[in-house]
Amino acid sequence: MSDMTKQEVTTKDNIAVFKALADPIRLEIVRYLNRLDHEVACGEIGQAMQISKTSGSYHFKILQEAGLITAHKVAREKYVTLDRSTFDHYLTHFWQNL
Q: Is the pTM of this model over 0.85?
């Protein structure tokens, strides 16, 4: 197996970010987090989006794998926040990344 070039890694990262944002529910989760501008319990977001825990977990996992959110657990509750550095890197400088 050959090593991936920096260009290939960047392309894969770009695809992961934009694929994550292409889903209407995930895009709405990102908008919700952006409006609040602080960490939020996943359960609160699920209620606001009217999605099940299973659906929420799926969407949070994809957003986290793409680097768009960070998450941590406190007791039984998971909290998420936007990773603004990812947005700055991929979205603010979108044309430079092409």
A: no
